[in-house]
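Reading a protein record of the kind used here takes only a little practice. These numbers are not coordinates but entries in a learned vocabulary of local backbone shapes. Here is one such record, which you should read through line by line.
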Amino acid sequence: METNDCYKTLAKPTKEILFKEKKSKFFSSAYPIVSEDEVKPIIESLRKKHRTANHICFAWQLGVCDVLYRANDDGEPNNSAGMPIYGQIKSFGITNVLVVVARIFGGTKLGVGGLISAYRTAAQLALEEALIVERRVKVLLEIKFDYPVMDKVMRVIKNHNLEIVSQKLEMDCILTLSVPKSKSQKVKKIFNHIHSISIHEKEG
């Protein structure tokens, strides 16, 4: 059975949006990410940009089948910032994304309900600015084979419109192919029927 290997994410970072609520300023922006390692540098760059910000709250989500997410209130009352931001990520049906809202306090307390509403609205405005694109979950297949079967291998690659990510053609041949996840089992079977090929899946 073929799995649905399409997902929605951002094509590029959004421009920063300013939302005001009772003199507090909320600067929101959204970024496409592929790993958690990308989050910290983005947050640190925003802390430098908004030196007067009292709180820089964010939420991110990664993955399609096995979803990871995190929501951070950065000192705001528990669940009043990060989770409302994360709620908008879920509402827009996107993944591999980070949404950040920097708040500069304007002197008037908003209360927990006001904060939830403000952070939710700020996140929504950022995502409404975003260019959302559909992508496919892909796996990397590494195939090793001898020169005599090169023609057969290249024919499979052409017939199934597979993308060659890297190639090493020395004593024997090693190709790394990017294959839609839903096609990967079928492609493996085809290659396994060609004599003198070894194939294994790599981490994407």
In short: The helical segments are 39-49, 82-91, 111-129, 150-159, 181-192. Residues 11 and 131 are 6 Å apart (CA to CA). The chain has a mean pLDDT of 89. The domain at 137-202 is CATH 3.30.70.240 (Alpha-Beta Plaits).
